[in-house]
Amino acid sequence: MGTPETHETHSTAPGPLPVPVTPAGRAALDAIVGRPRAALVALDFDGTLAPIVENPQDARAHPDAVPALAALAPKVAGVAVVTGRPAEVAVRHGGFAGVEGLGRLAVLGHYGAERWDARTGALTAPEPHPGVAAVRAGLPHVLAAAGDRPGVWIEEKGGRAVAVHTRRADDPQAAFDALRGPLTDLATRHGLIVEPGRMVLELRPPGMDKGVALLDHVRETGARSVLYAGDDLGDLPAFAAVEKLRADGVPGLLVCSGSTEVGELAERADLVVDGPAGVVRLLRQLAAQLG
Questions:
Q1: pLDDT tens-digit series, residues 66-75
Q2: pLDDT for res 12
Q3: What's the CA gap between 194 and 187, in Å, rounded?
Q4: What are the respective helix, strand and coil percentages of the chain, to the nearest 5?
Q5: Which of 108, 176, 223, 261 lies in disulfide reach of 112, CB 3.0 to 4.6 Å?
Q6: Up-side HSE of residue 71: CA atoms within 13 Å toward CB?
């Protein structure tokens, strides 16, 4: 999944907060800084807190991510990681468990279908959708019918979703385009949907996305302002949720964890930062600004 990022940990002062490029973004940042105890900070995991790597199972949070979150979380209404991964996997790969300062962290896994709370360590999850097993059984036939495409591989997602990755194929985009239709047909037959991402097609149950999860969490926390950071197509529903909140009078700051692969996200963002390292820097800047 792309060239792994290199990064260094930083002990120097994070510097001043960046200035969003939109009036709505600037108003939201002012609201977050002005009333931090009423602010929710929500972030995607892969590509946002964790650098994109060749094998998703090797993904780990940027080394400065947990310290930055632990510095920020006690100063705001809450922090949420909203991810398509199983919540338990995101917690393990993020290193979020048992960290002082992260008591207000919630990990909303499988697009909000699962939830892990740092304060209690409790994980809640519904029963798996039966269509996931049916889709998994049918995938080899569908992939074979679509032609021999070396490098395409299947990722199991805790029995709650299945992802087909094309990044390792000789022509990743051609493989992605060729498989999107057949996989959509397969998903539809079994009551699932296809969630496209950066050279990945995820087959999962309908009814939940990052936008739904974010809106539910905003209501739960009573947040009066929100920051959301993401990097991929799956984050577009969360961006739309923030735009809806703005229309309802709740300031929202949209942050894109810079990617040349998902231009639509960058175009809609109030602030574009340089990948996970830039997200971590923003979190540190915000924590320092809040004192």
A1: 999 999 999 9
A2: 67
A3: 7
A4: 40, 20, 40
A5: 108
A6: 18
Q: Which of 171, 190, 199 is nearest to 1 (CA)?
A: 199
- Contact between 214 and 226 under an 8 Å Cβ cutoff? The reply is yes
Q: Any idea which residue has 């999850």 for tokens?
A: 125
Q: Is 44 a catalytic residue?
A: yes
pTM of full prediction above 0.85: no
Catalytic option among 44, 64, 209, 232 = 44
How many residues does the structure list for the chain? 291
Residue in 186, 156, 153, 157 with CA at minimum distance from that of residue 172: 153
pLDDT value of position 260? 66
Q: Is-contact 230 265, C-beta < 8 A? A: yes
Amino acid identity at 141: H
**Beta-sheet pairing, 123-124 with 114-117:** antiparallel
Q: At what angle do helices 65-72 and 275-289 cross, to 10 degrees?
A: 30
Token digits of residue 288 = 């320092």
